[in-house]
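Record 1 of the preview.
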Amino acid sequence: MEEFDYYEILDIHKTATGDEIKRAYRKMAMKYHPDKNQGDAEAENMFKRINEAYQVLSDESKRSLYDRYGKAGLQGGGSGGGGGFGGFEDFADIFDSFFGGGGGGGGSRRRRENLDIAVELHVEFLEAIFGCKKEVKYRYEKPCETCDGSGSKDGKRESCSMCGGKGQVFQRQGFMTFSQTCPQCGGTGSTIKDKCSKCRGTGKTQVDESFTLDIPEGIDDGNRLRVAGRGSIGASGSRGDLYVVVRVKEDPVFIRHEDDIYVEVPVFFTMAALGGKITIPTLRGEKEITIKPGIRDKEHIMIRNEGVANVHTGDKGNMIAQVKITYPQKMSDEQEGLLKKLHESFGQDAVNEPHKGAFEEVVDKIKKWFTE
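->
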């Protein structure tokens, strides 16, 4: 068993409330989620630890055992790390953890039935910048009409022989008794003898659906849109929500960072020395900018309010033009001659290697470290 402190993993105190634990978990899980850290084995391991810690600390009984006996008190209780999502059954459970499931009894029931679903939607770079309408295609579940959601051919279910209809099995270790979901019935407390031929005993059928969704201006990669009442339908007739995860394609010219837009601007070396004006592309058309004499490579020129409109406030970010000084790949004899004359015209400034004196000063300082 890997040893680490659950409170330290979530960066909280031992006196943290349930809400504080939940907020800390959301923050850490989003930071180390595998989708944001692809190929990073260390982040993946951290994500497993975070989920393991949350499973224990969010459960009052497990937390009490952990506080008194450490991890040893949890062995056999089903709280160990395990898979990449630390015990979450599938991707929808992650979303349910992040977004809740509504208040009151209906929301609690919906979470248990796991009716919220998620789907990814890919949009072009400029579609995300200016907003658009996109068709969303997805699949949800509803109770099987043939067996009325029972999963049984004749509608009958038998009490589970392993748990006796409790849905939980118990294991005793020393003076403590631990419970876990029955592996035979999956916690339902009953089993099916003759399975429904249409749903094969699951009690559910899948339905394909599509609709047009308004993508708001300024949405960014990874943002989620909640569409109420388009999730799966439960046995009680209640329906969950659909979460649309937006994936924005990269642009060959522009790079986005939050609400700011970056663009690389090639500047010929002669203009970098002399200065001038050039026209660059922006999100909303071309714009003329001034290149000051002696500008440096990778220097930034900011154009205010030419970035992305914030999806919440509507305030626009900035556009940052990053200078890339370019040089000719080939020169004619005449051009080389002119360049040499220009070089010689600077006299001692060009010949005496002005960087040499500064380099010698650094060497002298290093020598003093060993002689003093």
